[in-house]
Amino acid sequence: MDLKDLVSIFNRARELIDCFKEKEADLEKFKALVEGEEIHAAVINGKIAGFVSVWAAEDFLHHLYVAPEYQNRGAVKL
């Protein structure tokens, strides 16, 4: 899994939501945000549609983002 793809989804999804102070992260900042977390991706037709990162030690779901082009299409469900 290429982290650059996840950073792209992270940034594009956050642009659509008006509650984040910082809208964009670069690769290094993203790596720091998910350090030590398990990352699972939803893949549709070979493309990453979304991802979740989990801090497994505390069963904490930290991030769940869906690429804008896959939102409201049932691509990622809990």
What's the shape? globular
Overall mean pLDDT stands at: 90
Roughly how many Å apart are the termini? Answer: 21 Å
Helical content stands at 25-40%
**Structure class:** alpha+beta
**Nearest-angstrom radius of gyration?**
12 Å
The ordered string of helix (H) and strand (E) elements is HHEEE
For the largest sheet, list the strands in their spatial order: 1-2-3
State the major sheet: 3 strands, antiparallel
Low-confidence segments:
none
Oligomeric status:
single chain
Count of DSSP-assigned helices: 2
What does this structure look like?
This protein has helices at 3-15, 27-34; strands spanning 38-44, 47-55, 60-66. Helix content is 27%, strand content 29%. It is globular and about 30 Å long. It contains 2 helices and 3 strands. With 78 residues, the chain is of the alpha+beta class. A hairpin with a 2-residue loop joins strand 1 (38-44) and strand 2. Strands 1-2-3 form a 3-stranded antiparallel β-sheet, with helices on one face.
List the helices and strands and how they pair.
Elements: H1 3-15, H2 27-34, E1 38-44, E2 47-55, E3 60-66
Antiparallel strand pairs: 1-2, 2-3
Which features would summarize this protein structure in a list?
78 residues, alpha+beta, 3-stranded antiparallel β-sheet
Summarize the model shown:
Helix content is 27%, strand content 29%. It has helices spanning 3-15, 27-34; strands spanning 38-44, 47-55, 60-66.
